[in-house]
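Troubleshooting: if your tokenizer reports a length mismatch, compare your output against this known-good record of 163 residues.
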Amino acid sequence: MNANAFRYLFDYHFTENLRLWVEYVTLLPFELFIKDSEYSHGSVRDQLVHLISVDEIWFSEIRGVPSLEPLPPSDVDDREVIRTQWNRVEKGMQEYLVILRDDILFEKPIKEPEEDQVLFVWQVLLHVINHGTDHRAQLLRQLHDLGIKTTAQDLIFYVYDHP
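Known-good structure output:
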């Protein structure tokens, strides 16, 4: 396990997040973007806000900085606001990943909440990757159910394209 492996996994994470945004979210009619779903976190919009917020919270915790406020619910097309927030969150994540060293992976930097104090940085990073994959899969299914043709997000396809 090393920092470069995590940088690679996060390149995959960022690439798939952007692909989801560009290929599906930006083209989705507004009424489908906010259409409620009983599954997971609700609408496509709300799923995206959750994904962004969780990335932000975990990276803030391992960096020891306050996290941004999650975006509030909205009944207007706020995709530009969401994308701006997402870019800001990913920029902070990328800044951390640039300075990540192998020895940092085995630190336990989280002070609050108490239950997270036992987590190594590598465990948090792996969780963020896994969480992103989970929610992108949920979003892809949700988009499929809304009549949108989607494609796979498997890591192996990224590996083939980014050896």
